[in-house]
Design a protein that fits this description.
Blueprint (H helix, E strand, L loop, with lengths): L1 E13 L2 E5 L5 E4 L32 E3 L5 H4 L2 H8 L2 E5 H10 L8 E4 L4 E4 L2 E8 L8 H7 L10 H6 L4 E8 L4 E5 L6 H8 L3 E5 L7 H15 L3 E5 L2 H6 L3 H15 L5 E2 L7 E9 L2
Parallel strand pairs: 3-4, 4-5, 5-6, 10-11, 11-12, 12-13
Antiparallel strand pairs: 1-2, 1-14, 2-3, 7-8, 8-9, 9-10
Helix pairs in contact: 7-9
Bound molecules: fe (ii) ion.
Length: about 290
């Protein structure tokens, strides 16, 4: 006997962009960034792209939730607003700038939130936490001079600068009780919080840049131990994929071997970009 109950479906698209289908049929899109025009003046920008994926390929979008507003998190936000007119959930520190940048969107489609808040939306509860960007040597002056090298859209320059200031982590609890946490940037107390929150799944960005399987797998093992979750889903490792295809898969496989050796029940997924995954609760006779 095998019985299955559907919890939630999701796919990792690129960077920190996930498309998440909730049990009630609504769709959340996080940090929309996939394809944008190549930048010959900043070849590094190419490492963040998912060439060939467009806004037309998204299946739906009722909500956008932003972790922060750097170009590799919002390069495609304008197109998403134009196609779906979603509610855009963002930290209140960037809400005014979003309204002025996308000046034709309805103001009530912007949903500003603050840290340590709880918000009730159709199909999910959102709990927000302070986040912190990984250290970057960008000053306000330099960012305003350089602009957003990812999108190359001069309208996004201020949002790009504010991206270094306002970062927001969060926990989503869906109507069926499934709990999914989203953690970008530095740890910033999230491991402490996760101990209390006990989510079923944590989406976590790349922990370190080094390209050594053993070292990177060890970092992930540390996070798996400290996150008190059942599944870790890594994100923002498209640079690994674009630079050295196969490295990430080896790393996550090794992290799972280490987890087994350490007696951990947590496992890490090696997500393929744009592939859908379903979370199911199953009951089966032994
Ligand atoms: Fe960033």
């Amino acid at each position: 006997m095998l019985m299955l109950a559907e919890s939630v479906s999701f796919r990792w698209i690129n960077c920190q962009c996930f498309e998440i289908k909730l049990p009630n049929g609504k769709t959340i899109l996080t940090d929309p960034c996939y394809d944008y025009k190549a930048n010959p003046n900043a070849p590094v920008a190419d490492l963040f792209r998912l060439q060939g994926f467009g806004t037309k390929d998204l299946e739906g979008c009722d909500y956008v939730i932003l972790n922060h507003t750097h170009g590799d998190h919002i390069a495609n936000l304008g197109q998403v607003i134009d196609r779906f007119a979603p509610k855009v959930i963002c930290h209140s520190g960037v809400a005014g700038e979003i309204a002025q940048t996308y000046e034709d969107m309805e103001l009530t489609d912007i949903y500003p939130v603050d840290y340590d808040g709880t918000y009730y939306l159709d199909g999910f509860k959102l709990e927000t936490f302070h986040g912190e960007h990984k250290p970057q040597r960008f000053t306000w002056r330099r960012t305003m001079e350089e602009g957003d090298v990812i999108s190359q859209d001069p309208r996004l320059t201020r949002l790009h600068a504010l991206g270094g200031l306002y970062n927001m982590n969060y926990l989503l609890t869906f109507d069926n009780g499934f709990r999914m946490a989203f953690v970008g940037g530095t740890n910033d107390g999230m491991e402490e919080r996760l101990r209390r929150l006990r989510p079923n799944m944590v989406l976590r960005n790349k922990l370190a840049n080094d390209m050594d399987v053993e070292a990177a797998a060890g970092d992930w093992l540390g996070f798996m131990e400290e996150s008190y979750t059942q599944f870790v889903v890594p994100m923002h490792f498209e640079v690994w994929e674009n630079q050295s295809p196969g490295f990430s898969d080896k790393t996550f496989k090794r992290a799972n071997e280490m987890a087994k050796e350490h007696g951990l029940v947590c496992r890490i997924l090696s997500p393929k970009r744009t592939e859908w995954y379903r979370i199911l609760v199953s009951v089966q006779s032994r």
